[in-house]
Amino acid sequence: MGPRYDFGRKPMNDLRKLFEIDAASVAVEGEGEPQARKLVRERVFEQVRNAIVEGRIAPGTRLTERELCEAFGISRTVVREIVRRLEAEKLADVIAHRGLTVATLSRKRVEEIYEIRTELEAIAVRSFLKVATDEDIEVAREYGEKLLDAGQRGDKVGMAEIMSSFLRFMAETGDNRIAGEILEQLRTRINMLRVLAMAEPGQLETGMEGVRAIIAGIVARDLEASENATRVYVRRSGEAVLRHMDREG
Q: What is the pLDDT of residue 42?
């Protein structure tokens, strides 16, 4: 197995301090209605997932039940459910003698993800354009505006999430269920890498240029231009991540 790299910031051991602001937006779990308890679980999971995707909790950081319980004022039962979901989304692994830790990605795994992602996103664009109505094209254009708006605000996580939704929309419109399912399975890991790529100097602007090229091709209904722009967009993102890994490795 190749070397593993730490993405993002250095680990912060005190999760209570890390989630000091986030926890304020999460109601403390009580004996309320099941729907209210479910809402708390969803909010806590989103806070933890977002912290991992944004790099606020670095790969390799150990997550303990006690720290998560104390950080959010929730029960161990709720924490265990959150842990299962983190494992299911490949955001955390159980490692012998360490317990639950934030997942790390080797260079080889990153290269694999980008190779697969390139093909899947190109397929999504191609299948979409083959059947897209004028209304579908307008929705795609609106997605482009949202992406550029998020980019101009410097909202890297927002841009990653919007791109995921855009790809899901294109895959569903193009009736390419398998491509959509695989992209969804990889979504969180892809978003982690998207955010990391955009943290590289100049990559946010490069990504926005890529979005403009993709949307221009779609609006023109130019299948070849759209697919090529998609491949270039993904390739440049991958190159940015690998530059980071080489520098940190």
A: 87
Instruction: At 245, list the tokens.
Output: 């890994």
Regarding whether 135 and 45 lie in a shared domain, the answer is no
Nearest Cα neighbor of 86 from 107, 73, 101, 66 is 101
Q: DSSP states of 111-128 as a string?
A: HHHHHHHHHHHHHHHHHH
Q: Are 93 and 190 found together in one domain?
A: no
Nearest alpha carbon to residue 113 among 219, 217, 189: 189
- The model's confidence at residue 47, banded by pLDDT at 50, 70 and 90, is confident
pLDDT of residue 26: 53
Domain boundary among 103, 128, 144: 103
Query: In the structure encoding, which two tokens stand for residue 4, read together?
Result: 């593993």
Is residue 77 domain-shared with residue 158, that is, in the same domain? no
Query: Which structural domain, as residue segments, surrounds residue 40?
Result: 4-103
The reply to whether 96 and 14 lie within a common domain is yes
Neighbours of 86 (CB within 10 A): 21
The 10s digit of each residue's pLDDT in 193-249 is 999 899 899 999 999 999 999 999 999 999 999 999 999 999 999 999 999 888 876
Helix, strand, coil distribution of the chain in percent, nearest 5: 70, 5, 25
Taking every pair of Cα atoms in the chain, the longest distance, rounded to a whole number of angstroms, is 57
**In this structure, what token pair is assigned to residue 53?**
């995707």
241 shares its domain with 131: yes
Which of 103, 122, 148 is the C-terminal boundary of a domain? Answer: 103
Averaged pLDDT, 112-140: 97
- Rounded mean pLDDT of 93-104? 84
Pair of tokens at residue 134: 């004028």
Average pLDDT, the chain: 86
